[in-house]
Amino acid sequence: MRVIEDYHQVLNDLNPKGVALGNFDGIHRGHQSLLKILKKECAKRNLLPSVYTFQNHPGTILKSCNRSVYPYKITPINLKEKIMDKLGVDLLFLDKFTQDLMHLSPSEFAKKILVDQLKAKLIVVGEDFRFGYQASGDVSLLNRLGEILGFHVIIAPPVLEKDVKISSSLIRNSIEKGDIETANRLLGRPFMMLNQVEKGFGRGKKMGFPTANLVLEPYQLIPAEGVYATQVQVDNKVYMGATSVGKNPTFNANEVTIETYIIDSNLMLYEKSIELYFYTKIRNQISYDNIDALKKQIIEDVHSIKHYLQNKSPMIL
Ligand SMILES: Cc1cc2nc3c(=O)[nH]c(=O)nc-3n(C[C@H](O)[C@H](O)[C@H](O)COP(=O)(O)O)c2cc1C
Ligand SMILES: Nc1ncnc2c1ncn2[C@@H]1O[C@H](COP(=O)(O)OP(=O)(O)OP(=O)(O)O)[C@@H](O)[C@H]1O
Predict the structure, then answer these.
(1) Position in ligand 1 atom list of the atom nearest CA 206
(2) Which residue in 4, 138, 142, 250 is a FRET match for 127, CA 20 to 30 A apart?
(3) Could you give the CA distance from residue 222 to residue 215 in angstroms, rounded to a whole number?
(4) Which helix (DSSP H) or strand (DSSP E) does residue 140 occupy?
(5) Nearest CA to ligand 1 atom 10
(6) Are 15 and 158 in a shared domain?
(7) Which among 180, 171, 169, 292 is positioned nearest to 227, based on CA atoms?
(8) Residue 255 lies in a domain
(9) Residue bearing the CA closest to ligand 1, atom 6
(10) How far apart are CA 316 and CA 36, in angstroms?
(11) Where is the domain boundary, 165, 200, 225?
(12) What pairing do the DSSP bridges indicate for beta strands 273-283 and 192-198?
C-alpha cells in the first residue's frame, strides 16, 4: 500500500481510482464492510482501491476544541496504515485538514480533491456521510456532483449491532469504560495498540514481573484504568500478557502508564514496537500497603489470565 501525505505525490499519477471517504477511526465492522464493497467494485471497474482521510482530526482546526469535537483515537495513524494495508487498500491519502481545506464548498472539494487530485471514478461512502464547508454536502449532493464531474457514487448500507449503527464513538465509549468485550464485538477484532516500548522505573523487574511500558501517541485512546488479559505480538511471535493501565497507586505515581508483563518469557524490548491485543478487564487498580501484597495479587492475575486466554486462538493482524 502506498501512503501519501501531499497531493503533489499523486499529481502525475493518472491511474483512475475508487475512493472511500471518511475518518475511519477504529476501522470497525461498518468501515470493514464499506472497504469490502470498495475493493469489489474497484476490481469490477479496474480502479485502484483508495482511501481519503485526514492525518489530523478536523477538531484541531475547528474553534471549540474539546474532547467531543476532538476525540481521542482508537487507531492512531501507524495502526490505521497497518490495518488498511491488511484490508487490501492500495493507496491511503492522509491529507492535512487546514483552514483552506475547511473552507472548500462541497463542489470545490469534489472537483479539486476527488477529480483533479485523485482522478476518482468511483466514490464509496456511508449513507450519513457529510462533506464540504460546515458539512453542508450530503450523499444526494455527492451523487449530483458525480453526474456532472464524471464519477459514480456507491452508498454502503449501514452495519448495525442490535439495531444501532456501529460507530467509532460507540467503540470509544466502551473502551473508556473498560468494556473491551463490547468494543471487540463492534470492531470485529480485538482492540489493539501498536507502540514503542520505553524504560520504566525498574520496579517491576525487582518484583519479578518486568513490564514493557508503552510510549503513548498524543491523543491516543487509553482504556479505563485496571488490569487486562492481553496477547502481545513481538517479532512475529505471540505471547500472553498481563497488562496494567493506571497510575500505579501503590507507588503514588501520577501519570497513567500502560505496562505489560509478558507471561513466562524474558524479552529485551526497549525501543522495539509491540502489538497489544486486549480481551477483557479482570479487575480495577488497587493501592496496596506493601509490595508483597501487590506481588501476591499479580501472581493471581497471571493465573487467571492464563486460564482466560488458554482457549483463545490468537487474532493477530
Ligand atoms: C498484572 C499487573 C497488575 C498490576 N496491578 C497493580 C495494582 O493493582 N496496583 C498498583 O499500584 N500497580 C499495579 N501494577 C503496576 C506495578 O505497580 C508496576 O508494574 C510496577 O510499578 C513497575 O513499574 P515500572 O515498569 O515503571 O518499573 C500492576 C502490574 C501488572 C503487570
Ligand atoms: N456502521 C457503518 N456501516 C456502514 N458504513 C459506515 C458505518 N459507520 C461509518 N460508515 C461510513 O464509513 C466512512 C467512514 O466513517 P467515519 O469514521 O467518518 O464515521 P463513523 O464511524 O460514523 O464515526 P463517528 O462515530 O466518529 O461519527 C463514512 O463514509 C461513513 O459514512
Answers:
(1) 27
(2) 4
(3) 12
(4) helix 139-149
(5) 248
(6) yes
(7) 180
(8) yes
(9) 285
(10) 20
(11) 165
(12) antiparallel
Q: For 90-125, b where at least 16 C-beta lie within 10 A, e where not — what string?
A: bbbbbbebeeebeebebeebbbebbbebbbbbbbbb
Q: What is the ipTM of this complex?
A: 0.93
Whether 178 is in a domain gets the answer: no
**Same domain for 201 and 81:** no
Same domain, residue pair 147 and 233: no
From the CB of 231, is ligand 1 less than 6 Å away? Answer: no
Report residues whose beta carbon is within 6 angstroms of any ligand 2 atom.
Answer: 21-25, 30-31, 33-34, 125-126, 128-129, 156, 158-159, 165-169
Ligand 1 pocket member 249 (CB < 6 A)? yes
Least confident of 2-16, 236-250, 271-285: 2-16
Measured CA to CA, the distance from residue 238 to residue 311 in angstroms comes to 14
Going by C-alpha positions, the residue among 214, 211, 212, 226 that lies closest to residue 281 is: 226
Backbone torsions φ then ψ of 282, nearest 5 degrees: -95, -25
CATH number of the domain that residue 221 is part of: 2.40.30.30
In a domain? residue 26 = yes
If asked whether residues 132 and 269 sit together in one domain, one would say no
Q: What is the CATH number of the domain that holds 89?
A: 3.40.50.620
Domain that holds residue 242: 190-309
pLDDT of 43 > 60? The answer is yes
- Mean pLDDT over the full length of the chain: 93
My answer on whether 156 and 265 are in the same domain is no
The predicted-structure confidence for 62-106, as pLDDT tens digits, reads as follows 755 555 556 799 999 999 999 999 999 999 999 998 999 999 999
| Higher local confidence (pLDDT), 63 or 302 | 302
Strands of 79-222, DSSP E? 91-95, 120-126, 152-156, 160-161, 164-165, 192-198, 212-214
Instruction: Kindly state whether residues 11 and 120 are assigned to the same domain.
Output: yes
Residue 22 lies in a domain: yes
Q: How far apart, in whole angstroms, are the C-alpha atoms of residue 214 and residue 271?
A: 10
